[in-house]
Design brief:
By secondary structure, the chain is mostly beta strands. The chain is built from two helices and 17 strands. The strands form four sheets. It has a six-stranded parallel sheet, with helices on one face. It has a five-stranded parallel sheet with strand order 5-8-11-14-17, with no helix packed on it. Strands 6-9-12-15 form a four-stranded parallel sheet. Strand 3, helix 1 and strand 4 form a beta-alpha-beta unit. The N and C termini lie far apart (46 Å). The relative contact order is 0.12.
Length: 202
Amino acid sequence: NFMAGQGYDLRSWGSSPNGVADTLNTNDTSAVFDLYPALDGIYTVGGVNPDFATLDPAIEALNRGGILGPVTLNLRAGTYSKQIEFENIIGTNALQRVLIQSENGDSSQVILQTPTGGAVVKLDGTGYLTMRGLTIESPNFSAAKSVFLTNSAHDIIIENCQLTGRITTQLYLAEALIYGDAPAFNQLKSNITIRNNRFSQG
């Protein structure tokens, strides 16, 4: 069995073609490297005996392996300090979404932040992803963003979350709690849904 969140190298080769000796065995092997199995179902992140100890392997598994069915990542209470970047996750569609949520439903107990500048959560061409019941804190840097949608991200839902910006007396046009470049928001049928959230210092 292949373990979720772990890359594998696979090799296959043939021998005795048509029952005869192989006189040219330099071309009988094919290989793929760092192949991740697709996810399917409910997974826990953080806390005691999780499926993923941190967000890093969970995100890598989604970006590299994709999904076979609906996937839920239940984040245990705590602060997750890293830049989170989701790409175009293979296998997602209207019936097979990815849900990232607080396991206990309390947004104040699951905090996403980044120690560096830029966006806390970047959705780069991502589709059919929901973020629910999370606190997303913008870093204390200029042009900071809580959520950044780019490269035609689509069918995104952000709900029941707390999004917090930074206090500043300066004006930065690219600084926002939720920021989307032109392709993300101008393209037809982007389906970006933002509902039942609390915004502060934005």
